[in-house]
Design brief:
Helix content of chain B: over 70%
Shape of chain A: globular
Strand order of the largest sheet of chain A: 1-2
Strand content of chain B: under 5%
Largest interface: A-B, 35 and 33 residues
Oligomer: heterodimer
Order of helices and strands of chain A: HHHEEHHHHHHHHHHHHHHHHHHHHH
Mean pLDDT of chain B: 89
Number of strands of chain A: 2
Low-confidence stretches of chain A: none
Largest sheet of chain B: 2 strands, antiparallel
Radius of gyration of chain A: 22 Å
Mean pLDDT of chain A: 87
Chain lengths: ~525, ~475
Amino acid sequence: MIESMFGIGTLSVLIWLPILGGLLLLAMGRKEGAATGLRLDRLLALAISVLTFVLSLPLWTGFDPATASMQFVERVPWIRSFNVEYYLGVDGFSMPLILLTTFLTPIVVLAGWEVIEKRSAQYFASFLILEGLMVGVFAALDGLLFYVFWEAMLVPMFIIIGVWGGERRVYATVKFFLYTFLGSVFMLVALIYMYLKSGSYSILDFQNLPLTLTEQTLIFLAFLFAFAVKVPMWPVHTWLPDAHVEAPTGGSVILAAVLLKMGGYGFIRFSLPITPDASGELAWLMIALSLVAVVYIGLVALVQKDMKKLIAYSSIAHMGFVTLGFFLAWAILDRTGSESGIAMGLSGGMFQMISHGFVSGALFLCVGVMYDRLHSRQIDAYGGVVNTMPKFAAFMVLFALANAGLPGTSGFVGEFLVILAAFKAGFWYAFLAASTLILGAAYTLWLVKRVIFGAVANEGVAGLTDASRRELFVLALVAAGVLGLGLWPAPLADVMAASIDNLVTQITHSKLQAGL
Amino acid sequence: MNPMAQDLITIWPEILLAGGICLVLMVDMFLRDSHRDVTYLITIVLLVGLAWALVGLPSGAMAPEGTATAFGGSFISDPLSRVLKLFAVAAVATVFLYSRPYLRARGLHLGEFYVLGLFGLLGILVLASSYSLLVSYLGLELLSLSLYAMVAFNRESPVAAEAAMKYFVLGAIASGTLLYGMSLVYGVTGSLNIGDLEAAIGRPEAGSMMLWVGLAFLVAGVAFKFGAVPFHMWVPDVYQGAPTAVTLYVGTAPKLGALALAIRILVEGLPAVGDLWQVMLAALAVLSLVLGNVAAIAQTNVRRMLAYSTIAHVGFILLGFVAGTPEGIQAALFYTLVYVIMAAGSFGFLVLLSSRGEEVEELDDLRGLWQRSPWFALMMVLLMVSMIGVPPLAGFYAKWWVLSALLEADHVGLALAALVASVIGAYYYLRVIRLMLFDDGGQATAAGVPLDVRVVLSVNALLLLLIGLLPDRLLELCARAAALI
């Protein structure tokens, strides 16, 4: 539809509309303290982000779930001397993630509606530019283009945390930038290496490139640096709690809901299909790191005193489930060779990513609502919030249950699939993985007990006013996503099915025989 | 056409510039201080004319892609020289555009600034086209002497005098080193012409100690002009001590001259001992990357920080040479061009902020700039992000190409070292962004800066974004320019 209207592809529109809109906002300058009356900047930001979301819906409606090949493809030469292309397209993995991004950006804009008073135009502009870049990461099929979007994202995020963050924002944002930058440069080396071998930067060409086991191992490790930092996997996770705690609410939401998913997406798009043999060789390591994240980080989350930190650690634990689901494939392959088991692990990981996008985003929104009132993130500053904020409390409890993986919520589907897959890999895998059900429930429900329930703890809580209509609307939107995905996961499963089958084929076919 | 006329046509841009300099000098003598803008205008017109002469050289032997030599093969006009010259002219013109309000506010708006700057430019043009060791030396000295004088341009300032003295003494030693190396190479080969060196060296026998020593001296001379570790001592002092407008000049166009010197002598003249100088340059490059990036972190003075950052960038440029392939040289050329644009922008930014009189010296002066001059803070963010090497800014493609060339030549270790060093380097560029955007306080402001300087800085910074979004043109230009080497 859009294609016929402007001659520009849907994906390009989704990338460039928010970026250009963001630049426009940036140029609008700043009017301090113009809180009263019509604030053009936030209206414009909302309009652009909602428009982007509406324009992204054709990706869903026009998606052909029967094929694993790329759809909505745009392919134009970009840097001819290096055979780099402006090459975009989506499959069953990237399409849901793009929709997640375009869905959450208007929510982030709404969440900052009245809260951000300092340089609000620039705040919204940063998020819009970030949105375009994130869509670009998921849509890019050219390695260098992917890298450009991937790295460019650091700059708006650096600024969002640094300008609108909490007290230790400078430390947190510099740490965030340097950590992720260091991880990514190794990926660049791997991309250049594969270009020198294949003469192309196309990711699909990389996937068909025959590589020896040594080459695969080095490439896998290079990608691992980049993606493990982003996911983040234990032990390179330490930037995340800092970044989350200091970021403004919107920043935390985008960080948890979308940015972390890029690491998981990277494994699916690069590591698994490009280096299947090395992934197999090192699967034990990946599974071990994932289980450490699930169990150990779960325990760490239990003792947190800061709500945002607790949710941040919970994010790491949940993302450990994602990588666990992906790399269980080889454990299953060794033990039973069950392709359906592999597919289960992969789709469990994908479900977990989408679901965690909603749930963690929602929990950060909830913390944001409370923080805006009492300006504290400490758990012991609250208690008995349900007495003064009943409507808000209902939502918070819902999201907490989703975080704990209650059936009927989106959190359940992914965890259930991954645990099922883990059983096919072996009892102990499943045993350790299932411990998340206990740990996740423990730290989430204990958080809810201390913050929401009980008697009113202090005067601050006694003076709380319930969530405004804007806040309830935002929470309701996310709640719809959480419940929708939990009660009716079939549409998402259908979209992913063909791509997952294709990936299973790539995983189970060694490149070594093909190459030699 | 008779050979003499042919020669003159080939050096036509240099003749034009030399004549123009005399004109500027003459006219300026008869002007009162209040009419100094006339000198400025003539200079700009001269540079525009020069650029036009370079783009549309008289045809004949000079096909657009062709190569012509003059004066018995000691002077060459080829695509590489034309690209370097065009960029040098543009860089010098940009420096002049930036500097006028700055100089005027300090009572330094004198004709000599332009005359010296133009003489330096003439030196760069000669370097770019030199095809003989002796001509290279001539060009280099013309450039260097102009620079010494420019650094000492503010007679009142003891700091500047000290910097100039230091620069002069060290520079004279370096020139001597270079000259000594040249004489040794001449002793081995019996020729000064770069085109004849390779044949004269023949196969390098193990015993040709004299050639090796000569080469080592040449490399040291080149490294000094670039400002690579351990020949970098002058860089921070000169960058900090000179008036900012002069730092802007020193930090931009002369880098093109140094690049030309390295390409002509090492790559074109002495490929037979390529293994040897590549090893030397590899050591210099790694040292520069590490020391430049680490020392920059400790600086509080903006210009000193940028000086160390220059050293680190030079390390990256040298890595292109270390690759030793045509790819590597093209990458080094691209890196240098992009670096000159970035350096022009960041020093230009300081000149702009200092235009009204008070000098922006310390990093702390930049605090909270976003609140006072949001647009220019944003432009500086672009410049810094480009220096870090984050896409989609031009600095990324420069690093990417050098890495690509290194990996193609199987220098994986060097590539990784360069990457780690640039991650360390990201820290101090981020600090500039942090001070401007996240912090409060500070006095620097762009209020009251004339429109032309504002426009030049904006164009300068946005150019990096434009190259970053559509890098193809400049990449191909560099590939073609260095293809014939």
